[in-house]
Here is the input.
Amino acid sequence: MTEQRLRILFAAPAWSPSRAFGGPVVAAGELVRRLVARGHRVEVLTTTILDLQQRPAARSSVAVVEGATVRYLATPLRYRWMGITPTLPVALAKLRRPDVVHVFGFRDPVTTGTAAWCRVKGIPYVFEPLGMFQPRLRKVLLKRALDATLYRGVARGAAAVVAASERERNDVIACGVPGDKVHVRGNGFPDPETEGLGSDPVGVRPRLGIPADAPLVLYVGRIAAGKGIEHLLAAMHELPGAHLVLAGPDDRHGVSTDAERVHTLPLTEESPRQLYPQADVFVLASAGESFGMVAAEAAAAGTPVIVSDRCGIAGFFEDGEALVVPYERGAVVDAIRRVISDAALRERLARGGPAAARRTSWDHVTDVQESIYRAVASRTAATKPSTDAS
Here is the structure.
């Protein structure tokens, strides 16, 4: 018997072509593309925010991205990634009733408003907090106060909560969500046969003045506190001759990159694919990541990877596929020193990364997510009209 195709609505604070929001946008695109290929009807409600430097568009627009209909809602005001979208209620009212909603993010008007709409309409929704559920870094006391009031209904009203790793699941449960509601879906790794194939005709070394024989350490992501960038800067002091490339938007939050042999690059949609193969080692020494998609991309490209044990992706690597180290400066610096000085270790990790990618496919992740959708949608199937194939 052919399973019913679902009408799925995503609500998110940012969407492609934004890359500055980080790995979640990449993960969402991979997931949505496969859901569409399986015949599901996917729509997205999001803001017009692209990054933290540009003013978001104050006019709404609609586009087809990865086969989904994406409605970029006019965003006349924002605070960081919290876009104020006055037309959200109108957009929700015009939508055909979805079978299930995926609330993709936390503490922003689009996801909070959509979750409240679902509760009023009796529409089941899946909540994916993207590593933001446990308050940390900025304004922790304010976040806790708002979580206990304004945002308390988001997790409580969800039919299921999706975590990218066991680490994130533990964080969510520690904040009071029942364990039987939280599902570890994980994220997929890119296909190692296609990852790292982007072209860079000039090359990052000549472009930045890095000698051809100098060890190149790469970080990709937001330049922000909590990402372990201070450990990478410390490594430059202890490893003469090595160069560090920080590729990503400056979050303007407590991180100075003004140091010798440290280079910053703006992050474009294709730049990581170009950069990974040019690096001797990729490092994600973060203080906390629900997953860490950039480490998956680097591993699939065959670049030796170092991650801290506070990154959710750490649990997806087996021995010899990446170096997992404590979130501690000495451990991070020592791991970088080992990789750039040991050719045999670099070769072993370069083989191990693609092996991890082949084992952790997006098709499997989509299977898990689809089963979660069907389980929560079935709870209201008897009380709403069936979804047709149009």
